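Hey, quick one: can you model this chain's 3D structure?
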Amino acid sequence: MKSPLVKIENLKKIYSGNTVLDGINLEIFPGEIFGLVGASGSGKTTLLHCLIGYVTSDAGDIYYREADGQTNVINSAWRFGVKRLLFLGSSCIYPKAAPQPMRESDLLTGPLEPTNR
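Sure thing. Here's the predicted structure for all 117 residues.
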């Protein structure tokens, strides 16, 4: 049986006393195509923020190929052969607030990590 590429167990995130994620469990296996669908404010972006390490969850665990990825997402991604890791913040949610078409210089806020060169 294949091991999951990503495994989330009992993930919880609270913002200002508002529980946004509560007990999220998820497994994504190699080769699967996975999408998040939900109403505005349902926690899709928060889940992705936790997944990439942009924010820290309040409870639960995230594993990348059985390794705890919350400690260092960039290092974990590099170790497991991820070629490119990119997070597009509110420019994806609010495209009218971002220049269109988006240029690479609009996305970069500083030098690339050595693993992304």
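One thing worth noting: The beta strands are 6-15, 18-28, 59-64, 67-68.
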